[in-house]
Each structure stands twice: as C-alpha cells, then as structure tokens.
C-alpha cells in the first residue's frame, strides 16, 4: 500500500467492517514490510520486523480516515475490509532539517519526527551547526553555545537586497534534549543522524574559539558561502575529535555526519582526519559529495549527492554507499511556482508534480557498482524559513510526494494529485500542518516585497 492509497488497495469491493483493534505476528519478508488483513474479526498484521509493524499501523490510520490523525475527538469505528501486502522500495527514506540557520525549538523537532513517521519516512538528518549558529551543547567547550548559538541579526531575503531582520536570533539543544529526540524517534522507527559541518560553514565555532579559524570573525548574519573556514592545525583536529566524541555519545546510531561542503580553498585533511576518527569509533562517516574531492576516504563512508546525481554515481563506482538528494529535485526550500505570491522565492521552481515525477535511481548505473544506492532524502534548508509555520509551508505537501516516491514502485500514478487532495490533505489538516494549498499560498503565507534569488 502506498502512502496515499490507490483504489486497488482494498480488494474486497469497498465493504466496511467494524474496527475491533489489531494483533501482530512476525513473519519472514522484506525489511519494513507487512501484510495487513482487515475483516469482521479484527485486523491482523504480519510484519517482518518492528519497523514493519509501525508501517502497518500508519496504514491502518490511513484506512480509518482523517479523524484518526487528531489528538482527541470521536474515534473512527469502521474500516474497509481489505488485504494489503506492502514493503518500501528504499531502505533510506530521509529528510534533512536545517536547525542551524533558524533554530527550531525541541517541541517542533519532535513534531517533525512524528510527521516523518506518519509518512513512513525513517531518517531525520539534523544539520546542527553552520556559520549562523551552533545548536549542539558540547560540555568540554561551552563557548560553542554561549557564543556560537546566538547572532546579532539575520539577512531578510536575498543577501543582495541589503535587508536585515533587525533582531537577534539563537537557541541550542542540550545533550539531554537531543537524547530525548533520539529516543522519541527510536520508538517511531526513525533514525536521527546528527551533522557537525566542517571545515566550511564553521563561523559560529570560530566566533566562539577564534584559534580554530584562519580569519576570525563573529557569528555570521548573512547567507550563502562564507570563505572563512577552519584551519588544519593539529590542535583544531583534536578539538573536533572531542566535539565528535560528545556527539557520538549523545547519538548512538551508526551514521555520523561531518559535512564537508562548500569550503573554498580547503585541502580536505580535517575531513579525512575526522572521518578516520569516526570509523575508529565504530561508526560510519556521512558527508556531502564534496568529500570525494578530499582524497581517499575510509571504507564505509556514505556520500550525500546534492550537486546533481553525478557525485553519487562516481561515489558508487568508487565503492561508497550513496544517498541521493540533488538540489534541482528535492530541495524543499526552493520555490514552488513562478507566481509572485511565493514567499521569498529562491532556487529553481520545484513543484509538487516535479517531486513526484523524480526517480531516485540515476541513469547510467549498471548494477555492477561496488557501492550501493541506499535511498534518498529531501533537504529543508532554513535561511528563509524562520519559523515552524514557514517550514510547514515549504515542506508540505511536497514531502508527501517525496514519501510516496521513496516507498512505492517506480511506476507513477496519474491520479496522484487527486488522491493527495481527496485523502491526504485532510490528514494534514487534522495534524495541524500549515501546508501550501494546491491553488497557491494563503494570504498570510505570502511575504510581498521580500526579495529572493530565483534561478
């Protein structure tokens, strides 16, 4: 069963039966897969694993209707009589959430974990540090949050406009906050992958500890690529070994993000050193596709292909596992139409239909590559998304389309948008998600006169 059920999902002629609860048994099958059988006797779930049971329960909520997605109120009492056999197409079905450019309070991160689970997405990549803010508490180096978590102002709109928000911005998560996020996600079969971005996008760290950088400076108040990067002194390497040790203590998962993108003039030694440290700690490094230019990477390194798909194809040919996230297809901060009503229009037009039409498997693969395509993730950068409401508008309903692409077979359904409108938008309404309507933004979702940078 897809995220948004196609009419053929229920095979018993649409007959309804009284909902009497469910029971689950574990059986052989593909990871994350399940069989759901509903009848007058109740609902039987046969799942390969606990993740499969969670996926089946999300399908059960879908079958019960939009009311099942509300926190309180009258509960649904009937369900279609049907048999559904289902499993995901890709193992890595992820979302990158940038909490560095604009901080999201912990409650909103927990809400996004829940939204990922509702959509059968299973990876949350948290971008925790950047030039504009450091959001991870490091007990050995308290200035990273005392200084680096706050900036005096923020660019408002495109950097070439000269406009500023006129107010400070900041915030950070304690280690206990993030352990709570990890556990909350684990219970919903969502893996949280942290990212500390090095050697570029590090101005917040340099503001806190100037000896780390080449040029000094405060926490950045602008967007775009900052040419100030970390130095490669051994003391800097040691500093970040300690930072990543604390990160790995908080995040017990196998995969640890180290960034590696947009670092002008950097030779890559810091990236390689920290990647080796992560591997020695029994984990796997995960970085943006620029890390392929850093020199030989440790076995087990995972590459996120964001500058198109070519970096991912190269990485697989070199034996690395890959996650596809090309900006022209799955950057959800990019504008959703050419309409002047789109708030702060940046990037290329990426419509709901564009996201649904995308196939994560790039042309040119032979199947003989030593590296694997693990899956894909949609990226939500927050330079121009300064609140949870703005993140909702950028993410949904495009993230629902992405979720269906990641779960379902490669063949596209011509009725996808109609199914979305009839079945899934009422669920988002029930969940309180402030998505972009299919007809365009609500008046209060527009930001007239704020310049963007459309491409």
Automatic annotation (TrEMBL):
Q: Which UniProt keywords apply?
A: Glycosidase, Hydrolase
Q: Which domain of life is it from?
A: Bacteria
Q: EC number(s) of the enzyme? A: 3.2.1.52
Could you tell me which residue ranges the Glycoside hydrolase family 20 catalytic domain spans?
Answer: 90-265, 272-409
Q: Which CDD domains does the annotation name?
A: GH20_chitobiase-like
Q: Does the keyword Cell cycle apply?
A: no
> Coiled coil where?
none
> What range(s) does the Beta-hexosaminidase bacterial type N-terminal domain occupy?
30-87
Per its record, the protein catalyses: Hydrolysis of terminal non-reducing N-acetyl-D-hexosamine residues in N-acetyl-beta-D-hexosaminides
Database matches in InterPro entries: Beta_hexosaminidase_sua/sub, GH, Glyco_hydro_20_cat, Hex-like_dom2, HEX_bac_N
- SUPFAM superfamilies linked: (Trans)glycosidases (SSF51445), beta-N-acetylhexosaminidase-like domain (SSF55545)
Record's keyword annotation contains Hydrolase? yes
Give the family, as the similarity comment puts it.
Answer: Belongs to the glycosyl hydrolase 20 family.
What is this protein identified as? beta-N-acetylhexosaminidase
